[in-house]
Amino acid sequence: MKIKSAEFVVSNSKVEQCPNSALPEYAFIGRSNVGKSSLINMLTDRKSLAKTSAKPGKTQLINHFLINKNWHLVDLPGYGYAQVSKSTKKVFQKFITAYFEKRTQMVCAFVLIDSRHAPQKIDMEFMQWLGEHNVPFCIIFTKADKLKPKVLEKNIHNYQAEMLEIWTQMPEFFITSASTGTGKDEVLDYIEAINQQ
Ligand code: GTP
Ligand code: MG
C-alpha cells in the first residue's frame, strides 16, 4: 500500500470521544518505549506525525490519524511503565481496555514487542486479555536494527516457542525497524488486504 496522505485527527482520553466514523481502524499498543509512535512515523513516511521520545510515557492519549482518507491508525499510550504513579497507571489501563472493549471499528490490534527481550509477563497477560475479549491481534517485533541477524532469529524463535505453550498457534507476526524501514511493506500490505475484504 502506498501512503498518499496521513493526517492527525484528534487526541483524547475517552473512547466515547473518539471519531464518530465507521472507517476501519488499526491500533498500535505495547509497553512504554517499545517504539509505537516511531513505527507509526515509519509506516506513514512522516518524521513526526506521532510524537516520540527516549523517555517512556510520551504518548498519554488515544491518537487518531486518518490514512489515505479511508482508514484510521491509532497510537495508544504504553502500558506497564513503572515510573508513573499507580493511580495514573490504572487510568491508562482503564481507557486502553475500554478502547478495545468498545471500539467496534477496530479491526486489528498490533501488539508491539521489543525484539531484544525475552517474553515479558505483562505482554503475555495483555495478549491473553485480548484473546479473552475476542480482539483480533498481530505481533510486531520492533527495533530489529539493534540486533545481529542471528540473535534476532534466535529471539523470535524463543518467543514463538513460549507463545505456543499458551496459544494453539502463533499469531501473525512482523519484524520491523523504525530506523531502517524493515517490515514496512509487510505491515502495510497486511492492512490493505484486510481493508479490501
Ligand atoms: P510511549 O509513547 O512512551 O509509550 O513510547 P513509544 O512506544 O511510542 O516509543 P517511541 O516511538 O517514542 O520510541 C521510544 C524510543 O525508542 C525512542 O528513543 C526511539 O527513537 C527509539 N526507537 C523506536 N523504534 C526504534 C527502532 O526501530 N530502532 C531503534 N534503534 N530505535 C527505536
Ligand atoms: Mg508513543
UniProtKB/TrEMBL annotation:
GO terms for biological process: division septum assembly. CDD domains: YihA_EngB. The keyword Magnesium applies. Its cofactor is Mg(2+). SUPFAM superfamilies: P-loop containing nucleoside triphosphate hydrolases. PROSITE patterns: G_ENGB. GO terms for molecular function: GTP binding; metal ion binding. Keywords: Cell cycle, Cell division, GTP-binding, Magnesium, Metal-binding, Nucleotide-binding, Septation. PANTHER family: ENGB-TYPE G DOMAIN-CONTAINING PROTEIN (PTHR11649:SF13), MSS1/TRME-RELATED GTP-BINDING PROTEIN (PTHR11649). Necessary for normal cell division and for the maintenance of normal septation. Belongs to the TRAFAC class TrmE-Era-EngA-EngB-Septin-like GTPase superfamily. EngB GTPase family. This is Probable GTP-binding protein EngB.
